[in-house]
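hey so i finally got around to running the thing on that chain from the lab meeting. sorry it took forever, my laptop kept dying and i had to restart like 3 times. anyway pasting the input first so we r on the same page abt which one it is
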Amino acid sequence: MFGILAYAIAAAAVLAIVFWLGLAYWVNKDARRRIRHPFLVGVATVVGLVPYVGPVVYLLFRPAETRDEVRSREAELAALEAQVAQRRPTCPECSASVDADFLVCPVCTTRLREPCAHCDAPLERLWQICPYCATRVEAELDLDEALAQEVRSLDRVADSPTPQAVEL
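ok and heres what got predicted. didnt touch it at all, straight out
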């Protein structure tokens, strides 16, 4: 009876030591994936060697993201920033690239904006007053139609395919 109990205690002790060393190995492996500085990886591994409490302490203080996740997030943000920086206005009819001060699309000759009666600055269709000279804009167009056209152009922009992400 005492022989079986001694074997059970020895087996439990071996299992506890193997589990403890496995946790320390996991802490080291996880720290290498999350921490760039080798000294801090060593500190995390030493903390992970403290039996059973060390891995819990490491879990409380480890970085939330792996280095690969950080690199991926930064690449996505750079790609989005590049896309936003390159986004230019387009013609609502033919989707040709136009400048903000164009009155007419140079490709399909669609009227994009009306000139201000006072300063000839290009005005958006829905503006009630010229922001450049503060002259009231006489509404010659149907506001419902202008709003519908604006919604259609926004839908076209939303449905257009986005450029591929930039690889770093």
